[in-house]
Amino acid sequence: RLPAALDKPSIAADYAAFLQKNFHKDANATEDAPKLRMANRVYVNESLELSAKFNELAKTSFESEAVPTKFADAANAVQTINTWVEHETEGKIKNLLQPDAVNAETSAILVNAIYFKAKWLHPFSAFSTSDHEFRMSDGQTSSVPMMYGDERVKYGELADLDAKAIELPYKNSDLSMLVLLPNKVDGLVALEQKLSNADLNLIVERMRGADVDIFLPKFRIEFEVDLKQPLQQLGMVDMFSGSADFSSLFASGPQQRVDDVKHKAFLDVNEAGSEAAAATFMKIVPMSLNLDQKIFKADHPFVFAIRNKEAVYFVGHVARL
Fold it and tell me: Domain Serpin, which positions (predicted)?
């Protein structure tokens, strides 16, 4: 439940403004502008009568809606949901649900998918990408394509986190990728524990512009997770139990609960940026010696976050390559 001090209509209006600003394509945007796509829907059993008021609020404030679905026809229901998600994410997220995900007893399915595509403000040169050793926490190693760039970016040495950090901005956007690299090869778990309650904005505020030799591996992630258990661990228990109150969602009928929450994300990081054809170029610079040049070499597990001051859109780690 929301604390009494919070006003539900105000929250809905604020969230609608957030979606409008961050997830809508600007009519004046250039081809280089980032693409940030999010798909949200609630699929409910067609035998349940939906509240018209809820549907209107979901559409206007949350850009979502409750869709009556014949879960008894599981194959068709799953295909309908997967086709919608694939369309909303420009074909990058496919088969979100497996054929056995629903049945005639399913009350509701909540679906969320997010897709991101952008170019770096300072792209890496494909000429400079070469194979390097990536060391994993368990002592194993692998050979990976390591990108290299020499740029002036925000950089920080964070003693309290026992880590280094850089911020790589995206072109024509306030979005950036924050990369946090533990000082120890096996320091990923400890770093993530320290970050569990951290404000990334405060971390970025501590960073300063510096000339940095950047070594960052190319990586591609397709992440899928059932959010039921994590949401329960965060305290959202009632919605999955007999104590659930969806009286504002359903106009009538028996008491209902949420069966499942699925989330899937796609991310591809390369020389040009995220999910874009890599550019090849040569960079010519003056032959001068910078005695304060920093080195950031992500050759072991690290944390990344795609963010701006308002929100974190992707957060994850690269542990094995």
Answer: 1-321
Q: Are residues 124 and 236 in the same domain?
A: no
pTM of the model: 0.80
What's the domain count of the chain?
Answer: 2
Q: Does 179 lie in the same domain as 47?
A: no
Q: What is the pLDDT of residues 3-47, one digit of tens each?
A: 455 566 777 777 777 777 776 655 566 666 777 777 778 888 888
Give the integer Cα–Cα distance in Å for 50 and 68: 8
Please indicate, yes or no, if residue 3 is contained in any of the structural domains. no
Is 217:300 a contact under the CB 8 Å cutoff?
Answer: no
Tell whether 45 and 126 lie within a shared domain. no
Q: Are both 16 and 87 inside the same structural domain?
A: yes
DSSP letters, 67-134, are: EEE-TTSHHHHHHHHHHHHHHHTTTSS---S-GGG--TT--EEEEEEEEEEEEBSSPPPGGG-EEEEE
182 domain residue, yes or no: yes
Q: What is the CATH number of the domain that holds 109?
A: 3.30.497.10
Mean pLDDT (whole number) for 133-155: 94
Q: What is the pLDDT of residues 84-96, one digit of tens each?
A: 888 888 888 888 8
Residue with tokens 């945007």: 29
Does position 260 have pLDDT exceeding 50, yes or no? yes
What is the sign of the dihedral through the CA atoms of 283, 286, 287 and 289? negative
Nearest to 180, CA basis, from 6, 306, 303, 310: 303
Q: 73 lies in a domain?
A: yes
- Residue 248 gets the label, from left (phi > 0), alpha (psi -120 to 50) or beta, of alpha
Say if 227 falls within a structural domain: yes
> Which residues touch 84 (CB under 8 Å, ≥6 apart)?
39, 41
Residues 240 and 197 in one domain: no
- Percent of the chain having pLDDT more than 90? 36
> Each residue of 205-236: pLDDT tens digit?
999 999 999 999 998 887 777 788 888 888 88
In whole angstroms, give the CA distance from residue 150 to residue 285. 10
CA dist 82 and 80 (Å) reads 6
